[in-house]
Each structure stands twice: as C-alpha cells, then as structure tokens.
Write a structure and sequence with these properties.
Structural class: alpha/beta
Distance between the termini: 47 Å
CATH superfamily of the largest domain: P-loop containing nucleotide triphosphate hydrolases
Number of strands: 10
Largest sheet: 6 strands, mixed
Number of domains: 2
Number of helices: 19
Helix content: 55-70%
CATH topology of the largest domain: Rossmann fold
Bound molecules: adenosine-5'-triphosphate, magnesium ion
Order of helices and strands: HHHHHHHHHHHEEEHEEHEHHHHHEHEEE
Strand order of the largest sheet: 6-7-8-3-9-10
C-alpha cells in the first residue's frame, strides 16, 4: 500500500534518493580515507605528504558536497511526502462523503478525525524514516559488505553472523511491540471520541450538575491511554537497549578477534585495515541499530496505514457509481413491503415492518405516531440515507436501489428534527447545496420561511457569520433557516420531520402558511405531533411500533395539481 501511495511520486523519490546517496556518502568514504592515512603513516613511505594531501582533499570534497545535495534531498523528498500526505487526506474526505449515513451511527466523529490528523501524520513520519535513515542504514550495510569483500574477504562470514542475530531480536520483540502499539492507537482513538463527546455534552452535563462524573469518566480514559503509552514506551526502550547491548558486544568481540589474530600472526592485516574493519563493523552495527530504533515509528506508521485502510476499504458505502441518474422527478413514491432493521453488532432492532404505501405525485401525506414508532426511519428511507432491509421503495416506478441517489436528492428538500448549520455566513448556510440562486429568489425564500425579521436584526444581516450568530440563533430561528433552505431548492419531494416543532404559535402559523404554499404540487411527507399542522394533508398515516397501523382519510382540503414534468 505504501508503494502504491508513492508510485505517482516515483520521480521525486528517485531524485531525492540520488541526492541522498551523495549527501550521505562521506560516512562510507571517510573510513577508507582514514585507513589510507593511517597506513601512510605506518609505512612512512616516500612522497607520503602528497598522498596525505590527496586523501585529505578527497575527504574534504565529499564532506562539503553534503550541503547542496542535502538541500536537494530535502526538497525532493519533502515534495513527495507532502503530496502523499495531502492525497491521503483527500482520499479520506472523499471516502467520508461516500460512506453510508448508517456508518456514522457506528463510528464516532472523533475516531475519524484521529485518522485524518494523527494517522496521516504517522504515515508521514514513516515515510521520512524510510526515505532517510532507513536508506542510509541499508546502504551502510551494503557498503560495509562490499568493502570488506574487497579488502578483507576473510571477514565476510563474520559480517553475515549479524543476520541471525537481527532475526532473533526481531522475532522476540517486534511482534510484541506491534501489539502494544495497536492497543495504544485504539485507546487514543477512543479517547478522542470521548473528548469530542464530552465537549458537545457540556451544556447537558452542566445542566445536570454532572461535571465530576463526566471528568472522572474522561480521566479514566486518559489513564488508559497513559498506561497503554507507557507500556509501549517501556517495551520500545527495552527493545532498543537489548539490541544495543547485543550489537556492541558483537562489535567488540569482532574487533578484538581481528586484532588478536593479527597480533598472533594468523592474519596479516595492516593497522589501517584493522581500523577500517572496526570502522565498518561500527557502521554496520550502527545501521542495524538505526533500523531497529526506527521500528517503533515504522510499526506505528504501518499500523496507521492499516487504520486509514480500514476507512478507505470500508464496504458500507452508498454505492452510486454506474447507477442511472434521474433527470427529473415526478414524485410518485411507493413502499412495497418495506421493512427496516437497525443492525448494530449482534443486535437487531426492527424499526419498520411491512410498510405499504402508494403516494401519487403532488400528494401530501401526514405521518403521525408515538415517539419511537419509526417516523424518522421512514423519512430516512425516503432520502435514501437508509435502504430497506427487505421490500422495495419505488420512485416514479423505479427501484430506488437502482438510481444514483445524488441525482435524486437534487430534487428533494428535507427539514429535519435538528437543524445542522455549518461554520459560514447565514447566506452560505441558506444557499448551501443549491446552485445559481438569484438575490430575489433568496429574499423570497427567506420571507416565506418567516426568517426575514430576525435576520434583519443581526449586525451584518445575511452576511453575519454563523459562528458569531450561532449562540444567538434560537431553535426556532435555526428551524426557519432550514425551511428557507428547503424553499430555495424548489424540490419535487419535500420531507418535513417535525419541521415547525420549535416555533411559537404565531411564527408557526406563518411558516405553516408558507410551507403549505410550498407543498402545492409537490409530493410532501409531514411528520407532526400537532394535528393542525396536518390540516392540508391529503391522507394521514399512523405508525405504531413500526407498522403502518391505520390510514385515515385526511382533511384533504388541499387542491393540488400534478406538476408538469420539468
Ligand atoms: N441509529 C439507530 N440505531 C438503532 N436503532 C435506532 C436507530 N435510530 C432509531 N432507532 C430505533 O428505531 C425506532 C424508530 O426510531 P425513529 O427515530 O424512526 O422514531 P420516531 O418515530 O421518529 O420517533 P420521534 O417521534 O421520537 O422522533 C426506535 O425504536 C429507535 O430506538
Ligand atoms: Mg423522529
């Protein structure tokens, strides 16, 4: 997956790594230069000064080029890494917009936020480690093997002894480290979800004087995060220390063995060669240790990739690709034996059972029923947020499962039980999702929603940022903004789930009037507890415990005309 991610950046990565090899070359060249210099001194040959100067010059040249090549490396690699980081975040966002609405009932916002922020960052760190220290370590090892093979081939087998050593350490430690990290990450996600929840709950918590309980609950979670982090840290450190000791001992014994063998005359190495050998053994052990010390970051990075993959590969998406887009909607809606079950882990909860309902274009259907009877669920089926668990839902005679819901939703407007406003101006909130709105039409919608008066009182009218006005918008005002939104869309299907429940009698009457005007000629579903809001309904259906229990003829005073096709 990491390779796939970096494939589009391969040119930058390649350029970066070439620059990197140049930049890092002194590390591998200097031991050779040092060995040469030592041998020059040891042999005291004639013309030694010239050779010394040459060696020193070569060494210095390799050192100095580090600055420009280092700069190029940073530039290229940073470009690649930042591009990937950016793409990951967009991919996640894109996916969030595709996942079914039901997914968000199961997975909390905090958890998803952690993925966009922390996990992407972990992948970035992983990439940095892999592009710099990891490459350096691998090249060090290769160079050491190469030079050893060239200058002292008899020591090659000793270098390869490192392989089993590394394998043993990895085998015993790294799997455990991965598990600890996974635990830590899960705790962190849960914590983030809980902090998010706590902040949005603050008004409720305060109103119930439950501050201490809430603090204790969240602190309990912090404690778990701390414990998970500590055990990860402990194991990472232990891991690092064990590796260090093992390699240093190995190093020391090799160096002493080489010196001892030369001293006793078994081998004939020059002092320079012994230093060289020592130098490269050091380089190799340092490199292997470097790789090992990177293990926590690498573990975390791959784990983060896995966590991001969880979302990117989550199958619960709203599948719209390849489905037929609807160009116009007449508004005939038919429920055929529709049942719906909420599934959460093993539990199942039937919210609708065998609902049959045939709605003609332009008809207004009032939906009543006790709380929890399934009214909102019925409305969510209409918007396509939920799909029938069994049965069919037909739009203009076509199964909703076979159409591109996005194209259908351009023709509907929903005013729900809660009005969600985003951080923008009032105007942006009202025209959200509607393209090309004339100022007149906007004014009209606002007036019809009975929102003109309170908007005029805001300091900057329509251009007041919600953030500033947010605290000052009452439930009823927010609801009127939602109604203006709906009016503006000029929908063919209108879904009102207790849309006027938060309004006072006077403004409800006015909004009701505007809504009734809006309903004319559109298929409308109104969920309401108050009967007078349903006076213009053609039919009223009653939900009871998920069943469409009775259907009584509505007051049906509304004269509606079937609208012509658009
Ligand atoms: N996301 C969910 N997961 C599991 N069960 C759910 C979910 N949403 C609703 N339910 C259950 O489905 C049933 C129907 O809920 P629904 O929201 O449709 O009721 P309602 O008629 O709109 O109630 P109200 O009048 O209070 O708004 C309820 O028993 C509820 O507990
Ligand atoms: Mg409801």
């Amino acid at each position: 997956m990491l390779l796939e991610l970096y494939w589009p950046e391969r040119r930058w990565v390649l350029a970066g790594e070439i620059a990197f090899l140049c930049k890092a070359s002194p590390v591998w060249i200097l031991p050779l230069v040092t060995a040469n210099i030592i041998d020059i001194i040891a042999k005291r040959r004639a013309g030694g000064f010239g050779a010394l100067a040459t060696n020193a010059g070569i060494g210095a040249a390799f050192i100095v080029q580090n600055i420009p090549t280092g700069y190029l490396f940073a530039k290229f690699i940073s470009r690649a890494i930042r591009n990937v980081e950016n793409r990951l975040r967009s991919a996640l966002t894109r996916r969030f917009q595709m996942l079914s609405i039901g997914y968000y009932d199961r997975v909390s916002a905090g958890r998803l936020q952690t993925k966009v922020l922390r996990d992407v960052e972990s992948v970035e760190q992983l990439s940095r480690q892999l592009s710099d220290p990891a490459v350096a370590a691998v090249v060090s090892i290769l160079v050491a093997i190469g030079v050893t093979a060239w200058r002292m081939p008899q020591f090659l087998p000793v270098l390869f002894l490192l392989v089993p050593l590394v394998a043993i350490i990895r085998h015993t430690m790294s799997e455990r480290l991965r598990r600890y990290n996974q635990l830590f990450r899960k705790e962190l996600e849960t914590m983030s979800a809980q902090v998010n929840g706590m902040i949005s709950m603050i008004p409720v918590t305060r109103a119930h004087a439950a501050e201490e309980e809430e603090i204790a609950r969240v602190e309990g979670r912090f404690g778990k995060v701390r414990d998970a982090a500590q055990s990860f840290d402990r194991h990472a450190t232990l891991f690092g220390a064990t590796t260090w000791v093992a390699f240093m001992l190995f190093n020391l014994s090799c160096f002493t063995a080489a010196a001892g063998l030369t001293y006793s005359g078994v081998l004939s190495l020059t002092p320079g060669e012994i230093v060289l050998l020592g130098g490269y053994f050091n380089a190799v052990t340092a490199a292997v240790m470097q790789l090992n010390s990177m293990l926590p970051v690498i573990t975390r990075g791959f784990d983060a990739l896995h966590s991001i993959g969880e979302v990117l590969e989550e199958p619960d998406i709203e599948e719209n690709r390849g489905k037929r887009a609807v160009v116009s909607v007449r508004g005939a809606i038919r429920f055929e034996n529709v049942s719906f079950e909420f599934r959460r882990e093993a539990e199942e909860k039937t919210a609708l059972r065998d609902v049959n309902l045939d709605v003609a274009p332009g008809e207004t259907i009032g939906v009543v029923g006790p709380s929890g009877s399934g009214k909102s669920t019925l409305m969510s089926l209409l918007t396509g947020f939920l799909r029938p668990t069994s049965g069919r839902l037909l739009l203009d005679g076509v199964d909703m499962n076979s159409i591109d819901l996005r194209s259908y939703r351009r023709h509907i407007a929903v005013v729900g039980q809660q009005t969600i406003l985003f951080d923008g101006t009032l105007r942006e909130n009202i025209i959200y999702g509607t393209s090309r709105v004339s100022e007149d039409w906007l004014r009209h919608a606002i007036e019809a929603a009975n929102a003109g008066a309170f908007i005029a009182e805001l300091p900057r009218g329509l251009d007041t940022p919600i953030g500033e006005a947010g605290a000052r918008l009452s439930g009823g005002q927010r609801q009127r903004i939602a109604i203006a939104r709906a009016m503006l869309r000029n929908p063919r299907v209108l879904i009102l789930d207790e849309a006027t429940s938060a309004l006072d009698a006077a403004s409800e009457a006015r909004v009701q009037e505007a809504l009734e005007r809006l309903m004319t000629g559109r298929t409308t579903f109104i969920v309401a507890h108050r009967v007078h809001t349903l006076r213009k309904a053609n039919r009223i259906v009653r939900l009871e415990n998920g069943r469409l229990a009775e259907e009584e003829p509505g007051p049906g005073k509304l004269r509606f005309a079937v609208p012509a096709r658009e």
